[in-house]
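User: Could you check the structure of this?
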Amino acid sequence: MNTLVNSLGRRGVQLLNCLLWRMLLHIGRYDAVPGMADRNVTLIFLSSAGKVVATAVSVAANFEARRRGLLDREQLHPEEGLLLAPGGSIHTVGMRFGIDALFLDQHMEVLKCVHALRPWRAALAPLGTQYVLELAAGRLVETGVARGTRLFWLECRAAGVRE
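Assistant: Sure, the predicted structure tokens are below.
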């Protein structure tokens, strides 16, 4: 194994890691809406570089859940998040903490990144936004997610998401 890693180099290992995740996640379901069939679901999000973006993402797939969003939360754990489906422009009015936000197209490709959106602020969605992934502030810097990065999701377990 070490011989393979040495011969591939760092970039090769990243590409191999990404390929393995794609095979694991059966990535062919780009147009499937995460959590629409089962709204009480937790998702794991990975970047195209193979990095874990979030391990506990809840889905807000109806009007009431999207309206409430993260308002009833005191804070977000670094690997928690909320996926708004369908997504659009967002705000942090009434929130007690800042967030990072990813505006995603139908193929889960990042159209826009918003870093550390403070409470009582808003972020406009770019054209083509289908989903918004809200994460703990600073998570985008930690994971290196940027515009053009493609995210992949894995449905991991049922959760107690209130709708």
